[in-house]
Amino acid sequence: MNLQKFIEQAKKANIFYDGEVKDIDSIVDMLSPSRPLLYWTMELYDKEENEIKGGGGLGILAADTRRTAQQLGIPLVVVTPFYTRETHQRLDNFWQQEESISVKPGPEYRQYCNTSISTLIHNVVPLDIYDRTLGSTRIVTITEKNFGELYPGSNSSDHRLYQEVALGFGGYKALRMEGIEALYMQLNEAPTVFAAIARLDDLLRSGQSFEDALKALRSQLLYTNHTLVPAVEGEFTRAQFEHFAYPNILNNELKEWLNSLFNSESKIKLSLLAVELAGKKSGVSKLHARVSDFYDHSGNKVKFDAITNGISRKWILPGIENFYHKNGILNETDLPSNDYKSRLNTLDMNTVRQLKKIGRAHLNHVLRRRKNQYNCPTTIPHDAIIFDFKRRFASYKRPDLLFTDTNRLSNILQSHNAHLILTGKPHPNDEPMKHELQRMLTLTHNDPILRQRVHYLQDYDEEIGQALAFGADCALNVPVVGEEACGTSWMKDIANLKLLISTPDGGVADVQPIACLEVSGKNEAESLYYNMEQASAILRCDSAYRRELIRSLGAYLPIISGPRMMAKYLQLFANK
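-> structure tokens emitted (576 positions)
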């Protein structure tokens, strides 16, 4: 895809803020392989296509951002660690165990250089740099034999800081060796902030004053926050910075400035550094940009622009994507056409049912190869309704809400010939959610109906996520309102002609009132069960199913579009 053509299509689709398109064309003219967008991320989850396994939604989004940039012809370099240990989940008596295996970059990656960072006790810590070019995009990975696994230890551990410093300083040096200088830089969460510090140190070494260098950095730096909950963030001490970060900084004025940001306990959150260094800040849905509660060093509340996440075409069943294009619902850049809402009236239920059969066949193929809670394949009758809960098992996402009343749940599943697929895993350090998972699976085992109709898929990954998006019938998304930054699983469900039952949180709440079956009220468990019964009835009735699909697609197709997300990022960079 020609980038200029995409910009023209985005203008026609009124994607840009308030219809403003000034300075967008200048970005198109300036972007090049040597002056690309740099996208820094601590994880990239793209095991199937690029042999890098992440931990969850942050990495999935990074992979989708790269894919979408490649589709649109946008020069973009993703800079990420390659972790030498890869973890997988297995269950032992319903208790989560983590198995770790050694991995290394595959033959599709080129080891193009070596670089290093320094610590207080090691002048040279060697780093290996691998890369892979895909169209207009490039993946650059930083690693060494002892790099370890993704998210080791606590948020404030020494090894975690070492990995973050290695990515930022080592990655920046590797790019400079290749003659790559960012047109703009995006920090995908605060732990990537050391890339910005490396850039600032470089500007200062070129002879700029601190004030001018900081101004220049801010003009090209975007910090994208995905949690907007600073309370869960780790803190590092000045001693840790002196050990791992400061040996890589040559400018003493920069070190003094960093020292001034530590609190009275000589600790600092990386989000504060990102806020102070970035001229632009964005949240990943309208709601979370609005409720963010971050403050700069002077105590001023930080304003976040809202750019809701989007998904790439990887997550849409090819037959469904073809239907959207054939009927003019999506244009050639995967943006909704100007008259997409009226074109949704071409939705023919015979076609929908046939496409869902294709999706179910793909899901069944995956289910036969993956293990459930009993370490066996899963078989679901072809005429059964499938509900799914597929997301990381975190307390705020509330997988346990389904098990508030197991009698009610079993009655719904039996009376409507429905099955429930659960998948997702607790963080390795989240002991309470490990216990919660074991409790839920024990409750399932002890109920003869649930034992036959509730299936937990082990070792959740992108293969399972894609298969459920393609082949299940109704997705369950019930985070505590105000705590889900965006979520993208629900986007994949909407795109694949599924029903959605959700609380009004994250990106779902970009539309008010939300355009799906809403979980709300004082008794949210009762609301969830009621909506599962409603969804079962809708799925059995062509006219009701069609109305619900047109309602949800009409509301959410523009929001879930990855190209829409990229267009808005380009405009945010362009606006001075």
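The radius of gyration is 24 Å.
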